[in-house]
Amino acid sequence: MNRLAALLVFGLIAACSSSPSAADKDAPARAAPATLPIVIRSAKGTHRFDVEVARTPQEQEKGLMFRKELAADGGMLFPMNPPRTASFWMKDTLIPLDMLFVHTDGTIAFLQANAQPYSRVPVSAGIPVAAVLELRGGRAAELGIAEGDRLAWGGCAVSQEKIATDLNFCPSPAN
What we know:
single chain, alpha+beta, globular, 7-stranded mixed beta sheet, 4 helices
């Protein structure tokens, strides 16, 4: 019985130890969100972004809420499959965002620049879209991105790279 008690005490001490296990050391790497490449072709050039993807309804509901910053070439993609009329607001969003509503042909249907933090006013293109892309507020203007510009993502955006994703968006080139 003493041997069992000693093992239990040792196990409790080990479990409460503050030294990280091998799994804990890897936790920040696992916690880092995977990104998806997006390329936007505009009159002023081609621009690449590496964005997070909000796939689930829960991820889409949270979006970029509570973020204090966003990388210049970062953002978040909200895929709509099947395409639908999407409406977004900025409640609990701390930073301004550019919202790009993307037609099923890959063109930007509507661009809401610098959506105001904490606003409860809905933002929508008013038509079904394939996705909404959120970028750091003002970034679209900095790069000359406008309505009518064309997007692709996943392996279609960077065909020279091997992208392991089921989120390839390959609209037909403009005629």
